[in-house]
Amino acid sequence: KTRIFSGVQPTGNLHLGNYLGAIKRFVEMQADHECLYCVVDLHAITVFQDPDELTHNTREVTAAYIAAGIDPTQSTIFNQSQVSGHAELAWILNCVARIGWLNRMTQFKEKAGKDREKASAGLYIYPNLMAADVLLYHATHVPVGEDQKQHIELARDIAQKFNNDFAETIARVGYPGGFFPLPEPVIAGAATRVMSFRDGTKKMSKSDPSDLSRINMTDDEDTIAKKIRKAKTDPEPLPSEVDGLKERPEADNLVGIYAALAGTGKDAVLADYGGGEFSAFKGALVELATEKLTPIGDEMRRLLSDPVEIDRILADGAARAHSVADPILAKTKDIIGFIRS
Ligand code: TYM
Q: Which of 4, 6, 13, 18 should be mutated for ligand 1, with most atoms under 8 A from CB?
């Protein structure tokens, strides 16, 4: 049985990378799978968040999910802190994961920066919480962008070690094949790593100080057009084969974005625009991007005008998430040998 779990941090500036690498894929998966989509507020506070902004940003991610097409009556949408099992299982997994494994996480090194001693302890054990998110629901598949691959691989290692360490009691409670399924990352499509519009070698990110580096999900038509027109490119015309995009990170990025928005592949885009001038392609990209993105931004603003309704959706989702997570957490405690009443 497949079950999908994924999450987005409520840290503001939701961008095209979050949309194409994650949220758009979430929508595509909900038609034929059981899906849980989380707003990971516990993850967000690994770096200090202003309380009012955290509240707003949590609603904003929720609005983005719904505006993009996730149906909250079909999929479970909730914020992580309302389901205490995430924090409880994370503690248990802190005791399963090895420090050496965490030391290999490249995202910690990037986010902690030079003065690693000053990073929060939470930022360091963040990948264990992420493993808990997925394992708490016995999720089998996790749609994410390329940058999260290493974390999902760690979650698999943690699940495997738990299954081995407790093999005897796991068999006794009736799971001879292992208690936690090893989750598969689902990293697919033409835009699994959307790059900055200012520097094609850097990932598009929420924290880039330049707003021109990214398209935000709430940008209006004029802003989207301006950012695409100003996006860095090289002077060559577009190649007619995908191979010709090698060593041309900016061109590769824009072609990938077009393909992902259009729901085709880079080869199909180059069949139409290869050999032509960049400016013509950019014009087509402006048209496609505004057509696809501005209705989502408008719907997000409409949803955000009723925070009570958003909070109701999150509470409803949390209740449903609890009903999946609670029996799994209870079994986990039995396996470890904790007494519960
Ligand atoms: P976060 O909040 O940084 O990003 C949310 C999702 O967006 C994807 N993404 C991108 N995809 C393509 N190009 C980009 N430039 C780009 N930037 C971000 C991310 O890969 C992610 O899928 N740790 C996670 C959140 C998380 C999670 C989980 C995900 C917490 N628990 C459990 C899956 C399962 C994160 O920080 O994502």
A: 18
CA dist 141 and 59 (Å) reads 25
Residue 329: pLDDT band with limits 50, 70, 90 = very high
DSSP 196: P
Q: Is 206 annotated as a binding residue?
A: yes
Contact 213, 221 (CB under 8 A): no
Residue 17's pLDDT is what? 98
Q: Is residue 194 annotated as involved in ligand binding?
A: yes
Catalytically active residues are 111, 203, 206
CA distances from 326 to 49, 136, 323, 331 (A): 29, 8, 6, 9
Alpha-carbon distance 307 to 314, whole Å?
11
How many angstroms is it from 57 CA to the middle of ligand 1?
Answer: 15
Measured from the Cα of 129, ligand 1's closest atom is 31
Contacts of 53 (CB under 8 A, 6+ apart): 12
Q: Is 84 annotated as a binding residue?
A: no
What whole-number distance in Å separates Cα of residue 245 and Cα of residue 180?
A: 41
Span between the terminal Cα atoms of the chain, in Å: 30
Q: 3-state SS string over 36-77?
A: EEEECHHHHCCCCCCHHHHHHHHHHHHHHHHHHCCCCCCCEE
ipTM of the complex: 0.99
pLDDT band at 176 (very low <50, low <70, confident <90, very high): confident
Give me the sign of the Cα torsion angle 196, 285, 253, 198.
negative
Which structure tokens are listed for 75?
A: 């999929």
Check pLDDT > 90 for residue 1: no
Q: How far does the centroid of ligand 1 lie from the alpha carbon of residue 143, in Å?
A: 9
Q: Which domains does the chain have, with CATH numbers?
A: 3-186+306-336 (3.40.50.620), 211-302 (1.10.240.10)
